[in-house]
Amino acid sequence: MSTFNLPERPGPEPRTRGPVPHGQLDQTAPTHLQEELWGRMRSLAGVYVAPTHVPYPEARAIHLAQDFGTGSDDAFIKRAREFAHMHPVQDSSLHMTLPATVKKLVTEAGWGVPHPIQNTQLVYGPRDRDEIEVVWRILLRSYNYARGVESEV
């Protein structure tokens, strides 16, 4: 199994709400960083955009095509093809599926918190250029988990 290291997220963690909807209340990502991250997410090979399977209709979700690889049932939200979604601009956080060891690292490094009732991890929206790269690395772990691929990102 590969190692995955994360830097500590600087500053205090954002306030959150939940469990439904579960999201970020402050320290939101600038809109241009949200849009850049969304562009990267939807351009991943084998990914398609479709409605989310959670009760947050404004969220933008990415799903993995059936023939592009299949991770375990836990690699998908509600056992559908969705593995990650981005919340609306006023929230800016993301939910994604991750292996248990990566969820633990994300939480310990201050980049997010586990969803209180689902198998996903809330990842805080990136506040600057450095943070978008960390959030992207975490998202790539979710993508590889959904594909059934273990790799170091």
Automatic annotation (TrEMBL):
Ranges of residues in domain Luciferase: 81-139
Pfam family, one: Luciferase
InterPro entries per UniProt: Luciferase, Luciferase_dom
Chain positions covered by the region annotation Disordered: 1-27
Protein name: Luciferase domain-containing protein
Source species of the chain: Actinopolyspora saharensis
